Amino acid sequence: MKVCFERYKKKLWLRWFYIIIYIFWIAPIQAQNNEVIYGHPFITNYSAASYKAGIQNWDIIQGSNGRIFVANNLGLLEFDGNSWKRFGLNNTKVRSAFWGEDGKIYVGSQADFGFLSPNEKGELEYNSLADSLPEGLKDFDETWKVYSVGKKIFYCTFKRIYVYEDGKTSTIDADERLDISFLVENQIYTQIQGKGLYFANEDGFEIIQNGDFFKDKRISNILSFGKGQWLITTFSHGVYIYDGSIRPFELDDSFWKNDFLINYSTRLKNGNLALATQNAGLFVLDNSGRLVIHLDKESGLMDLTINYVFEDAQQGLWLAMNNGVARVDLNSPFSSIDDRMGLLGSGYAALKTDQGVYLGTNNGLFLWKNGKVKFVEGTAGQVYSIQNIYGKLILGHHNGTFLVEDLRAKQISTEQGAWLFKKYPSKSNFLIQGNYTGLSLFEWKDNTLQFIQKIKGFDESSRVMEFDGNTLWIAHGYKGVFKIKFNDDLTEVVESKVYDSRQGFPTNVLINVYKIANQLIFTANGGFYGYDPSTDSFKPLAEYNDLFRYGTVMADLEPDDLGNIYFIEQTKLGVIQPQPNHQLKLHYAPFNKIKSLWNDDLANIIALDNQNILIGGKEGFIHYNPQKDIPQENVTPVIFREISNQGVENQMIFSGHTSSGEMPSSLINREFSFAQNSFSFDFVTPHFESGSEILYQYLLENYDEDWSDWTYDTRKEYTNLREGNYVFKVRAKTIFDEITPTAEFAFIIRPPFYRTFWAYGILSIGVICVLFLGFRWLDKKHKSETQELEQEKNKALLRKDSEIESLTQKSEKEIMKLRNSKLQAEVDFKNQELTSSAMHLIQKNQLLNTVKNSLKNLVKDEKSSPLNTQLNRLIKQIDKDLEGGEEWTQFAENFDQVHGNFITRLKEKYPDLTPQEIKFSAYIRMNLNTKEIANLLGISVRGVEIGRYRVRKKLGLTRQDNLSDFLLRF
């Protein structure tokens, strides 16, 4: 495939040679077949509700900054492409307006005239000149026209003409009532009712040669029309050529009626004439009077009464209507063929023939001729293709295949979903048709197309297909591309292979095939590909892929006779143009205007001829005329609509109007206090063809690091800016990707007082003084502290001695405390031993009592005298052990050590206590209970109670005294 495309490049120079031959030789012969198709131009209507003023409009002008001004019943309207604004003036109906070279807007209205000029803040202020006239010159009603000649401004009324120059107003008076005045070649002309056409001079009015011809014909306008000629239009008596003599300018009755009233006429920049009528809309004629286009309500205008026509800098026509305002893109290369012409549905197929242009939609087939559309009977429903096959028109339709003759369709095949036909290369009388369920075979025989049969062996939908030799390539929407070969009689597919991502495509979906310059080009979700038979795979075509970004998905490609390749891609439409240096150029910016209008169901673009390209639209078709695709010389600039400042108070800095078109010098590098450090910028680009599709990008120097992303926002705010020098920059990108020059506003924010030079100076001096005083104070303080330190040193030595002594005492106390702690620990240990010993005695005595009681029982039961003797001896031995004399002596010594000689002190104080009562008291001090004491003493519980009573009595305790508490405290 690479070799094939290298061959294609080499042929480019031959193509250019053929183009030259075509232009100078063949094209003139084919001129009659290359009739330019005219659709309806794009029209934007603005109703009174949108601009919020009166319905009637009378005049339109454009300022040097691109804004449009409209003379309206309720004042002067301003439109910047984004929003409307109204200036009420003196609450009068504004009839005329003129943009002066000095940047002032001179206006005429009911019983008033004057001018608007910007003040220092850019706000338009109205100055009435009529208010300062002498009373005798105020007796006029309407100021219908305002003109300028040199420095003179002419306000034309029905009473007289007022001349304003250098701040003074003079008059050109007339004896009779004047009609509308005109400016032709820097000369003011006016019509005097009942007399004819006059020109004005300083002395008054003088009739022109043969001017009386118009005494009973009211003139609507006078235009320069060739050397020494005028074109004069009248309201109700037709159009005339004037060169001293007068002759009618004939208008063809095929489009013109005598009852059409001409309100205004003008000469367009391309030389055509525009006639604005009272009752029939707008007519655009060429110099010979032939109709170019007629616009009325069916074309999209909201009103038939047009009072004025103005052509703006972008060659758009503005219409001041009796009800609203309209803008017509008359010179755009794009126009619409849709239901306004009678074409119903979305566009799918088109074919140019000698009978006209056949247009296929989802509602059927239509014939367009001379701006009129007729329906072809029998074709209702979805049309897929219309092809010229051997001079016959063959229609591919949802319901089958049809032959079209004399605006009627005759069905020749009922196979549903007839996509299109391709001739079999080696047998041109046989044709292969793709349809919903595969392929069908047709034969051209006996001067007609005959259905043979459905081809066997392939049943996939076959909408997109091309032959390469006798091999048929069929692209499927989501399976890949099939390579098909037929048997000899073409009735069966004998070989079918599918190619997808395994053979080089990025995915299996959105693959298409086209034949360009007799070579196959495959497109997929990732660009352009060519088939390489040596590897039986597909490889990217850098020649085309370099023109587009990665991921390009082509919806349709269509070449014309000049080598241009028109394309529809997911994000753009355009044309690939061959260049003389064998390179390719991508041209798509103008197509951005319609990129949201094309039919995205089955996208299609059809090159009828070199001047007529049709793009299937959501509503009908979009017509593209390459001859009108002329780059705009001037790019509409960005203008500041409003600049405001916020902070302690809200301030309007600039309202967008200047006399020179440049930012007033008083606003350049204007300084603002730090308290006013927030700004709001409102901007716009009056590129009316772009509508609301203009993108903006902005940057604040010394704040933003880089330009912002492109956005539709027309307002940007900055808050709490630091002090410094700033430049706000903004630029726009139109719908045609044109980037405007940058608009700038430079300003300075002064620092707050505490960050000014003087503040820093005062602060520095203050710091020096503070440091000086501080050093002196520190020196004094150092000396004072030195003396204090000496005194403190002596005191510290005394404190140290005292502390050492105190520490010594504390140490001794700590030693004593430690000794006491040790002694207490020993006491606690002894106490534990005592308790343990007591418990041991209790347990032993319990055991001995138990054994004793058992022995006594044996003595009672045993009759043997020797055994009883032995048992009684054991009982006495147990009683002796229970008395425990030696154990008590040891216990008493230990008890006294732990309890501070308790037993000794008790004996000394209460000598009457028996040894048994002393034991009893010791056990009570140890917190033993009654039962435990009974076991230790070998007595009963009752005995313990009696013992407690005796002890209390000998100790002299009353009933209220607690024996245990007494013994514990003793």
UniProtKB/TrEMBL annotation:
Gene Ontology BP terms: regulation of DNA-templated transcription
Entry keyword set: Membrane, Transmembrane, Transmembrane helix
Cell membrane among keywords: no
Keyword check for Membrane: yes
Domain Two component regulator three Y: 688-734
TM region positions: 12-31, 757-778
A molecular function (GO) term: DNA binding
Pfam families reported in the protein's UniProt record: Y_Y_Y
Protein name: Ligand-binding sensor domain-containing protein
Organism: Algoriphagus boseongensis
